[in-house]
Amino acid sequence: MTSNQTISSFQCLITFDFDPTNTTHLPASVVPKWISLIAINIVISPLTVLINLLVIWTVVKNEQLRSNSYYILVTILSFGDLLIGLVVQPLYAALMICFTVQSSYICELTMAYAVSALLCTAWTTVTMVIVSLERYLYIEHPLFYHTSVTSKKLMIATAVSSVLVGTTILSTWLQVSESIGTRQLPLILTFGPSFVVVFFCVTKIHLTARRQMRAISAQQESVAMKQSKIKECKRTFTLGLIVLASVACLCPILILKIVGVVKGNWPDNVRFLHGISLTLLHLQSLINPIIYSLRLSDIRSGVAKRLGCNRSQ
């Protein structure tokens, strides 16, 4: 049976271009590669949960950080990353195990993984867009920012946008044709414009922040005022690093989804690459809090303090 045919003997809402309950016709190297993906996700999952939990704990326990709009959004983004490690990665590892042992629960796990991954990805994407807009308004339109932007408004905007985007993508994705290529269109049409907005905002504020950094040393201000401005610039540069990491992790899956749209089904030599690209996408949820911890002194000191408390206990 060719890779362009959908297996009819395995009935599931999400169709495959191979029979997942009978992998004997696949190359012998497939199963060891699946096992390696299982091991990677099992190792990464608890680390992702731990470090994101530490970031969230740091912000929640610090009143000064808790009252800052930027750190509120960092907490929201970290919560989405925590769900990736707590729910999505274990489901993915379980799904790969089912593929390996040819379990009868493949359909249920596939649906659970696909739905949870879509919702968490929508949460993360929407939050990154709002973080970018928050930094853009703070850097480019400070008067409007201080008079109109509040933490409460940002939280409401994030929650409402995430629910709307998540449910829209999920309902559209479940109702479209069974073709693998057709299923990619709602994702591309949703996440593509989002990253255009993020890229524009980050590029604009990055250039402005660099000009401000050069001007800070020449300004006749107190040391405390200069340190405060430097901190704000560092937050902007941190967002730039997050976006770069996101691009690096998203590019493989985006390329493969475009291949899926063009080809209609995954070619045989692309199927394992799809698993690697999903694992890279999961890895982003570990990279994000590491960047926060390394670049933001408030987060770094808070995470170090919590780790110290854990050791003392």
Automatic annotation (TrEMBL):
Domain G-protein coupled receptors family 1 profile: 51-292
Subcellular location: Cell membrane
GO MF annotation, one: G protein-coupled receptor activity
Main location: membrane
A Pfam family annotated for this UniProt entry: 7tm_1
Segments crossing the lipid bilayer: 34-58, 70-92, 112-133, 154-174, 186-207, 236-260, 272-292
Record's keyword annotation contains Transmembrane helix: yes
Domain of life: Eukaryota
Gene Ontology CC annotations of this record: plasma membrane
Keyword annotations: Cell membrane, G-protein coupled receptor, Membrane, Receptor, Transducer, Transmembrane, Transmembrane helix
InterPro entries: GPCR_Rhodpsn, GPCR_Rhodpsn_7TM, TAAR
Membrane-related topology note: Multi-pass membrane protein
Keyword Membrane: yes
Gene3D superfamilies: Rhodopsin 7-helix transmembrane proteins (1.20.1070.10)
Entry similarity comment: Belongs to the G-protein coupled receptor 1 family.
UniProt-recorded name of the protein: Adenosine receptor A3-like
Natural source organism: Actinia tenebrosa
The encoding gene: LOC116304011
